[in-house]
Amino acid sequence: MEEKNEVEIINLREIWQKLWKTKKLFLKVWIITFVLACTWILPQPRTYETSVMLAPETSELVSGGALSDIASSFGINMGGMSSSDAIYPLLYPDLLSSNDFIVGLFTIPVKTIDGDVEADYLTYLTKHQKFSFWKYPVIWMKRLLASLSSEEKGNSVGKANQVNPFMLTKKENEVVKSVRRMIACNVDKKTDVITITVEDQDPLICATMADSVRARLQDFIISYRTSKACIDVDYYARMKAETYSEYQKSVEAYGRFCDTHRGMQLQMMQSQRDELENDMQMKFNTYNVMSTQLDAAKAKVQERTPAFTILQNASVPTKATHPKRMIFVAAMLILATMCTAVYVIRK
Fold first, then answer.
1. What pTM was computed for the model?
2. How far is Cα 102 from Cα 71, in angstroms, rounded to an integer?
3. Domain ranges within the chain, ordered by starting residue
């Protein structure tokens, strides 16, 4: 055992001596790797990231009760099975990645933190994005090929309020895909807490878009939850107006008959007057019912409007999240050192 340990120690000493003799090679490799890594990573545009957390009110049936509690302890959410809503929190990420939702963000006005750019979000994405210097030849080549193509008109990007999510052009589809990569939505299966994360090259626009996406999502959820009740409100408001008009006509007919047949004691006239009075009373009762139904429908809208608890508001980030320049350069130096050491030892 002692002889084996001595052999291992001797081998490690020999390896160290061999590596020490080639220290100039390591120095050259480090310098070249450092220069190449800095050349690659420094021109990369810096991106910022901010998050918003909110907890929506969910409507669940009481029958889920104990079974739902047991499932949540294992990280399983039974909200989709016990909820009366067709769109429950686990589907919100799919909603945020849909073309209709993303195209709706194009009209949001944004402004860079230095104040140099102030435009809608679509214009900012198409005309004010930063790229690494080696990407410009590729971008220029794509634009040249697009200009020579017969489909140039169909590939152009329209105005923010004119983009049709049903029929996107190639360039508009590329913008939608880039936005889909920059906006992420995660839902905690246990607590239903929604976390919206937005990444952008400008910190102020990053925070603006995070808050805007949160507001748009809340508006969509409120609109969805109250859609049926709002339809009822519109219906009963229309019926109230119609029944009130019919009631006014019956009042005028009754008053006109009484004025023109005052003092007449004929039984036929009294019967006709009673008939007009009954019709007026019936239409008043109908109008009264429609008024009550309208008030109930308005109360239903308020009842169905969900409440949101914002756990974390959007804030302007102070430090860039990507790229990690120092970590990247250090990783490249470590990798180059390992590769050079293996090369020297094998040789």
1. 0.70
2. 34
3. 2-42+332-346, 48-225+310-320, 230-303
